[in-house]
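Ticket #4471: structure export looks truncated?
Reporter: QA, pipeline team
Priority: medium

Steps to reproduce: submit the single chain below to the structure queue and open the exported record.
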Amino acid sequence: MSKISAFRPGLKTVLKTTTVAGLAAVMLATGIPATVSQSFAEAVSVEGPKVASFADVVSAVSPAVVSVRVQSDIKPANDESNFSFNFGGRGFDELPDDHPLKRFFREFGGQDDMHGDRGPGRQFGDRGDDRRGPGRKPHLRPTAQGSGFFISEDGYIVTNNHVVSDGSAFTVVMNDGTELDAKLVGKDSRTDLAVLKVEEKDKRKFTYVDFADDSQIRVGDWVVAVGNPFGLGGTVTAGIISARGRDIGSGPYDDYLQVDAAVNRGNSGGPTFNLSGQVVGINTAIFSPSGGNVGIAFAIPASVAKGVVANLMKDGKVDRGWLGVQIQPVSRDIADSLGLADAAGALVVEPQADSPGAKAGIKKGDVITALDGEPIKDPRDLARRVAQIAPGKKVEISVWRDGKSQNIPVEIGTLAGEQIQAATSTDEAEPEAAPSEQALADLGISVTPGDDGLTVSSVDPDSDASDRGLKEGDRITSVNNQVVKSAADVVKVLDGARKDGRSKALFQVETKDGSRFLALPIDQG
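Actual output as written to the record:
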């Protein structure tokens, strides 16, 4: 017993020296209840910064966004992929060979990487097997899909022209799964817009959205895109406005918003919203080497869409104003040659015969600087603004001519058919060297007189003329808007320009591609 006692110190000593693992055994041995439990650390929880949610915007606008299914009895040119080649009335094969979109078009076998209307696989776009037996006449088949949105409570829907252009029948699918038949009200290939109208017997009122004032949109503003990518209706993505005023070569009125929200095939015609639930743009194209989203998408601005949609809803077509002049950008060199302070406006290359511009007295060499007092930025700006003017309206065109500004009243005409309202000439040909003859040494060119101007017989490859694209075979018809028929005429005009303090002179050059202007330095020598 004394031996055992030697190994049983008092209870107080045991509690101090015994490990937790053995504590229960000691307590049981001494008759004390085992009530001790282990303690563990809490799960990680971090209180982060409050971030604005898009949920309120999405829940408000989603009932107004629809998926658009298109049926057609027209077999597409490419039956395998069912991709559309129509982009705002202009196919990718019509783009210049050096255009980046043309390069992607070639690399990916004609696949329309810009549009979301022809989905891959067999969803909506597959023609599959005709199980009705041989000899049967094909019926309407699903050939395209896209997105759209209600713009009025009585069922008008906005989408893209390239989504519906080949369609014979249309179905819209609402966010709750309701399917409704629709008819085509009108379409406009130049802006790639179209309007559908739901054929609803009970005349119900639809949730609809309105266009925003996109002039208030800034690069960096948050936007939300809602649409039907790959047939997955009701898909929401978010991003920012990446850029404004993008020209992607689709037509004369290009003025796209660039966004980095995820946009894919099937999003075409769908809306991009600001955080107030207003439509700032209509998704129409993506820029992608793979056909999928890479964060570069383009949307038709609300300011462009609003007027077009209103006209389509009212008349089923768009009547555009027409000035009838061929124009090109005003470079810094051209501005210097004409004595213009700013490199802005549109330089008139040639008024079209019997056009409103020609009848009003606009001449080649004029620089159109303003329309009704509002400055013109560039040829695209002029093209868009003239197109928005109602035919028959009288406006005041400000031009820079002979070193001073003057105003010309013009009655705007109607752009009919495929008339070109404004053509820009920005491509420069590669220069070709040739032996010099009868050289205008200061300019690095040789010319041969003719009845209709001076033919360029050679160009010094190290000259400014060569750098600006002048080449052998081009014909110089005027210098500083004065007709020239000999080298002496050119020298006379250049001497006058130097006396006026000009460092450059404006040469009008005729090529096989048309007429254009070049500003050449004249202060050397």
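Status: closed, not a bug. The export was complete when the record was re-opened. Leaving a note from the reviewer for reference: The chain has four domains: 1-35, 53-318, 320-415, 439-521.
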